[in-house]
Design brief:
The chain has 582 residues and is an alpha+beta fold. The protein has an eight-stranded parallel sheet. Strands 3, 4, 7, 8, 9 and 10 form a six-stranded antiparallel sheet that branches.
Length: 582
């Protein structure tokens, strides 16, 4: 056994409370290096009297280097002392907090310790997110329902988007098309910013307590939320708490009064006066953008203001959660306060951080419920769209991500394939709709909540910002209705089967150089096998199954045939098949 590959450390994603009764314990070993791992565990205060217990650990995922093992334990007194026994061939070793041991340690005090399962520490994301299918709306470009509030320089709907033009999208337009979203099967909406701002994207907030007048009013927003809730649709707002806009009144005051301003400490000012020198502001800003000054969230007055914003929209308007822009650049202490305020207003509110990299520091239950799963986004696009990642490379990254966070965080991860920040998926697919379908079949069959970027479901195209922010097409003769039906059926399938939402995940097939992948999802006695082929030629995959089991293709295209304990699935080029155990 390669001992250097073995890793475990209590807490974080390696030992954590999954619920008020259950502790998950994980450990890492070199891939295919260890035959069995036994978790040895007991209560630290009664071990010497009643002894210990053992639980066999199981491999929950693999990547290119490692196996990730897990055991579930329900300690009767909520305390857990534990160690590990490894078996590989004729070799056995033990591991406690002091390292590897050649024989079973006699002193249980030197084992790893999960001191107490405190209910207050249990990370419990809102359960509804596991059932959700999100739809992202860029408000200025979705629908113009009230021309009377259009900007004075509004352009005709459907024109070429630029970084600065306006087309009049508003809240009434969204209300007018909720039946469309219901037809698609959507039960959650993520809105890009709605608060008053000067730009079309609204990430430069002027007033955090006010809906932008070109979108409507606070009362209209409440009407929209109530209309969504009547249809079973949750509402997620975008919060830009890392920075404000250049027209934010406190910032204007600092511009005018400098160090004498009562708001001087609301921002991170390196030198007065506030100005731009060699394209770099004398104050911290988002990406050196002078009109997006960074807020000082360590300042008590800033905290009070933003936390009231967080409370107001949840409690008074009734929204169901927040997506947090540039979340990784805000201090952790503020996010802990933010979580307390939001969860006090609504314990079932969803807190989603925009983080594009490893996010464990934010996912221990004291800050966010989930993050936008951009590592998975890139893996899917590289595999299914760009053809630069083979099946083994794709499956390995999925396996790594599966073990990267506590299970409850993975169950509500926000899985997206495109947004206002990326080129349209159809453009990345070079308008090959079969590749788009292959790509979208993946997040709808993996752990986490999938999201559709507005217009993807009817074939909307667009290059990187501003191209990806074009107007929604409402003329049905110009919509791809066949593609719409694909999305509606995929949404329906996921919503009808828990196994596809939060069932167990098992990798079944991936080989280097092969563009095929297969994995299984299982829950409540239902089992699905998902088989993917990103190659431009037909593929055939043989999978191990229980002897005599029969599978039927319930979505996609494929020809399954079972003989004994083998299932062979033939797939067309750029094909996929979702099979269900009969």
């Amino acid at each position: 056994m390669l001992r250097e590959a073995v890793y475990h450390r209590p807490k974080n994603n390696w030992s954590y409370a999954y619920d008020r009764e259950t502790i998950h314990v994980r450990i890492r070993t070199k891939r295919d290096d260890v035959d069995t791992i036994t978790l040895i565990h007991g209560d630290k205060y009664s071990w010497s009297v009643v002894g210990s217990q053992t639980t066999a650990m199981k491999i929950i995922s693999q990547d290119n280097l490692f196996d990730y093992w897990q055991a579930e334990v329900k300690p009767p007194f909520r305390r857990l002392k534990y160690g590990f026994k490894f078996q590989s061939g004729n070799e056995s070793i033990w591991m406690n907090e002091q390292g590897f041991q050649e024989s079973e340690p006699e002193n249980q005090n030197l084992y790893f310790d999960f001191p107490f399962l405190n209910p207050a520490d249990v990370f419990t994301p809102p359960a509804w997110v596991k059932e959700a299918v999100f739809y992202q709306i860029f408000p200025e470009r979705f629908a113009n329902g009230d021309p009377s509030i259009d900007p004075s320089h509004v352009e005709p709907w459907g024109g070429v988007p630029t970084a600065h033009n306006f087309f009049g999208g508003d809240l009434q337009g969204i209300i007018d098309h909720l039946d469309y979203l219901t037809e698609l099967g959507i039960n959650a909406i993520y809105f890009n910013p709605l608060f008053e701002a000067t730009t079309n994207h609204k990430y430069d907030t002027t007033d955090y307590m006010k809906i932008d007048p070109h979108f409507g009013t606070n009362d209209k927003m409440k009407q929209l939320v109530e209309a969504c809730h009547a249809r079973g649709i949750k509402v997620l707002l975008d919060a830009v708490f890392n920075h404000s806009g250049g027209k934010f009144p406190p910032f204007l005051d600092v511009l005018e009064n400098g160090a004498e301003s009562r708001y001087a400490d609301w921002f991170h000012v390196r030198e007065f006066p506030l100005e731009v020198r060699d394209r770099v502001p004398t104050y911290d800003a988002f990406a050196f953008e002078p009109h997006m000054p960074k807020l000082n969230t360590e300042n008590a007055a800033v905290q009070e203001y933003l936390l009231e914003v967080a409370r107001y929209w949840i409690e008074d308007i009734g929204v169901d959660g927040w997506r947090l822009d540039v979340a990784n650049e805000v201090d952790h202490r503020f996010w802990r306060q933010f979580r307390d305020v939001v969860k006090a207003a609504n314990p079932e509110a969803y807190i989603l951080g925009e983080i594009w990299h490893d996010s464990q520091p934010w996912l221990s239950g004291d800050q966010f419920d989930a993050v936008m799963n951009y590592p998975l986004t890139e893996a899917i696009i590289d595999y299914a769209v760009k053809d630069i990642r083979d099946g083994r490379q794709f499956a390995d990254l999925v396996g790594y991500l599966h073990a990267a966070y506590p299970q409850q965080a993975s169950e509500v991860a926000f899985n997206l394939l495109g947004s206002h920040d990326t080129p349209r998926l159809l453009n990345l697919c070079q308008e090959d709709k079969q590749r788009l379908k292959l790509a979208y079949a993946i997040p709808f069959t993996l752990t986490g909540t999938p999201c559709i970027y507005y217009g993807d479901e009817i074939g909307l195209t667009g290059e990187h910002d501003p191209g990806c922010r074009k107007c929604m097409e409402w003329d049905e003769t110009k919509q791809d209705r066949e593609l719409f039906r694909f999305f509606a059926e995929l949404v329906k399938l996921r919503k009808e089967h828990r196994a596809l939402r939060d069932g167990t995940y098992q990798a079944l097939y991936s080989e280097s150089g092969d563009k095929s992948v297969a994995y299984a999802r299982e829950a409540d006695g239902e089992k699905f096998i998902i088989v993917l082929n990103a190659d431009t030629v037909q593929a055939s995959v043989t999978l191990p199954v229980e002897n005599g089991s029969a599978y039927e293709v319930v979505f996609g295209e494929g020809e399954p045939s079972a003989v004994g304990n083998k299932l062979q699935v033939s797939l067309p080029p750029i094909g996929y098949a979702i099979l269900m155990l009969q």
